[in-house]
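cron nightly-structures :: item 1 of 1
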Amino acid sequence: MIAAWKKRAGELKREVYALYFACRDPRVPWYVKALAIAVVAYAFSPIDVILDFIPILGYLDELLLLPLGIITVRAMVPLHVMADCRERARQMEGRPRNWIAAGFIVAIWLAIAIAAVQWLRRA
C-alpha cells in the first residue's frame, strides 16, 4: 500500500512539472497559464494554506486542493500540448533542482503576503 502511495506521489510530482512546462508553452491560452502558475507555485511553495502541523486538516490541501487544481488545469490545456509537456517532465526526472526558481517562488509568496498586510492595514 505504501508503494502505491509513493508511486502516486511521484506521478503527481511529474504532473506538476508538466504543468510548469505548460505555463511556458505559447500554445496555452493566457488565462490557463495564469491558473497553472498559481497551481505550480502552490505545489512547489513551502507555504501552505492549511499548516501541516494541524492534525488531519494540515494535509487536506495536499490531498484535495492540489489534485483539484492539477485536474482543472490539465483539463484546460490542449491534449497535444499536455502530452509534450509530460514528455519534457519525464526527461527532467533525476536532474538537480533549480534553487533560483525556488527563491523566485518564495519571493512571489512574500510579495503576496506584503500586499495582503498593506491591504489589511488600509481596511
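cron nightly-structures :: done
The chain has five helices and no strands.
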